[in-house]
Amino acid sequence: MAISPSESWRLRDDPAAWRTWGPYLSERAWGTVREDYSEHGEAWDWFPHDHARSRVYRWNEDGLGGICDDQQRLCFAFAFWNGRDPILKERIFGLTGPEGNHGEDAKEYWWYLDSTPSHSWMRWRYLYPQAEFPYADLVAENRRRGAGDPEYELLDTGIFDGDRYWEITADYAKAAPDDLCIRVTVRNPAPDEQTIELLPTLWFRNTWSWGLDDRRPSLSVAGGALVAQHHSLGRFVLAGDGHPGLLTCDNETNRARLFGAENVTRYPKDGIADHVVHGTDTVNPAGTGTKGALHYRITVPGAGSAEVRLRLSAEGHGLDAAWGRAMRDRQAEADEFYAALAPADASSDEAAVMRQAFAGMLWCKQFYHYDVDRWLKGDPAGPPPPAARRHGRNHEWWHLNNADVISMPDKWEYPWFAAWDLAFHCVALARVDPAFAKDQLLLMCREWYMHPNGQIPAYEWAFGDVNPPVHAWAALRVFELSGAEDFEFLERVFHKLLLNFTWWVNRKDAEGSNIFEGGFLGLDNIGPIDRSMPLPAGGRLEQSDGTAWMAMYCLNLLEIALVLAEHDRAYEDLATKFLEHFAYIATAINVQGLWHEEDGFYYDVFQVAGGERIPVRVRSMVGLIPLYATTTLGKATLERLPSFAGHLRWFADNRPELAESITNAHVLGMDEGRLLSIVTPSRLRRILSVMLDDAEFLSPHGLRALAQSHRDHPFALEVQGRQAGMVDYEPGESTTGLFGGNSNWRGPVWFPVNYLVIEALRRFARYCGDDFTVEHPSGSGRQATLTEIADDLSARLVSLFLNDGDGRRPVYGHAAKFQTDPAWHGLIPFHEYFHGDSGAGLGASHQTGWTGLVADLIACRTPKCSEWDAGSRFDFDNPDYR
């Protein structure tokens, strides 16, 4: 990986120091499970947005464009006031799950525009209306709208008409690991002069009010700056341009405002905000506290801009020449870093999308703190939680104790880790920071995360939910992308994943038949019924996707074992174990009714108590996931591991009824290759004829999660003469309430499942070669190789973010401001999923997590190949062919 020497040095020689400070502050801490101490788990209501400005957080802090140290002792972020809002703008506003007509949703516009892996350089942008922010209008109108209506967005209110907004850009440059130079540029696009109040804010996370540690840090005014002193972090100084007001208060709850109770301080958490907005005497005249701000009042002419320089450092450095040098050098190094990463033939548009995608992933790190045992029992200084909580949400995960920087799916909509999302994050992050990617995968398997029974925690709303087992796949990809030399990492993660694999086998194969269940498995509302709830008629769902995920898991662990066996022959035994287990599962899915011969597709099967078996004939990703369970073994691998090769031959000869999935062999030139796959080449043709049909799965921007044909032909599941559920094609937002209604798998395009289809096609291509062609698109009369199809699907996904022939980006949909205004058109949002017909971005707007895979697709220009990679070190899956 060719990267700039300076960034390379930081990542190699002193990564811990350079990563101490980063964008680890959440965009939302209110409305989270961690802050919920209600009796029945009403997280949205227990700690709403209205409380956030006045109430102390127990576990995590939040803020605008903020940073903190890696233990979140000291935090820095921005606050703004346009002179009209009823409250100081200190955090992103959005609707709660019950308020939104499609679940929770942020109702503001901000972007993570740039970041190096060490966070030596970062850029953030926020667009703040100059008129009064329409809080009440957004809540009322979205509450009025139904599930069939579009969401009411901030642009729809007309508040940006006439360009009456502030464009606020924050740049961070590290002069040293503990020396952060900050530049805030405030641009006024309006035609007339406007005034804004800017408050760079410094505060301590409250660790002293819970009866666990009474050591209280201090923040004071000295020498025209704010000086912070912490018992373990030490001393930090925030200095700024000119002579700002210096305001301090305490990071303590305003009990009087919220609960009608007596305050512990005259200057609570919202003291600075009330002073700025209402002129109250709620800031400490002594200039001390645990929260402080520099107060700037800035008047900017129409079409003009202003700049404020800041510096947060341990040494108390001023705004000297070193400040300017750090800004110039760090930005130049970031330019060099990403120029080296972009393919030579990448367009400037592609390079910009790739850079913003990586920036979003790097900004979406968050300090995540959650001690479940302490949360269940309550704090010594607080009232005991209701007794019902001991048997409520996450009570079986009492061992889980997290205080780590973790890659988040979206720091506003999903400000908590999600295990299967994180696996995809790590594959993309491995291209820019492989050490961090490895650490993240190992972290999910550590004793304070993984359940003692071997289950990996899903997410804080329900740690016990079941997500697809993709960590072994991610570990292998990260290993390859980081140079295929860190065998210690691979061995560590492999041992922990053996525990998780055993959990799956023991818990999710109810009949011991190698047909797996698992519930919704991350695909939320994709089926006609909620797959995670008790099923009608006492039935049981045999899942095509659950079974295929486990077959893929076997192959991933087989591949890891083969790599490790080259250094320790003991792993050959585990390789043969997973080879056989894969054969059992692949045989089961093909002979026990999940393959529908008439339709040429894989389906779930609903088994009614008493024996009736009903195929759930929905053409969805559930039936494409079996494609993932495939890999190839080349001649060189078998020659290097003769014991494994001998067992493979024995198994093929002595267990022919189980060996079909591992006995496909093909010769290209002088080299023999072997395909291990659920799907045989003949069935692959049948599946692809549906998958590549633009009346079914194929859209202009990737594969839909559910076939378009269900628009005119909905599927109804009939059980014992009654309709148990129905599914139809919904290309946009969900019209059902399943899983909160804030995501939809009934037609939109989702990056992670598309990405795995592309990978699978490339593996099939290594076995089948260029002689294997199919119509693409189906019915077009044009033949294409599997590699060409994979390339085309990749290009379709990337095209979501690129300018089309009319200069429009599909991701923006019908948002005219984004499509036509040059100041907005280059600000790329990386949504959770995309409209199945138009490609418009939907769901969480900052889910650069797995949608950040677009950066990997751009960075990796996969060469076509028609030969076995038998000379490569790991010829079963050479990353050069991915």
Molecular structure report:
The protein starts with a helix and ends in a 23-residue tail after the last helix. Residues 862-882 have low confidence and may be disordered. 30% of the residues lie in helices and 21% in strands. Helix 11 (419-429) packs antiparallel against helix 12 (434-444), helix 13 runs antiparallel to helix 14 and helix 14 packs antiparallel against helix 15 (544-565). The protein is built from 26 helices and 35 strands. It is of the alpha+beta class and 882 residues long. Strand 6 (109-115) and strand 7 (121-129) form a beta hairpin. The longest helix has 22 residues, at 544-565. It has a nine-stranded antiparallel β-sheet. The chain has a six-stranded antiparallel β-sheet with strand order 1-2-3-10-16-14, covered by helices on one side. The radius of gyration is 28 Å and the shape is globular.
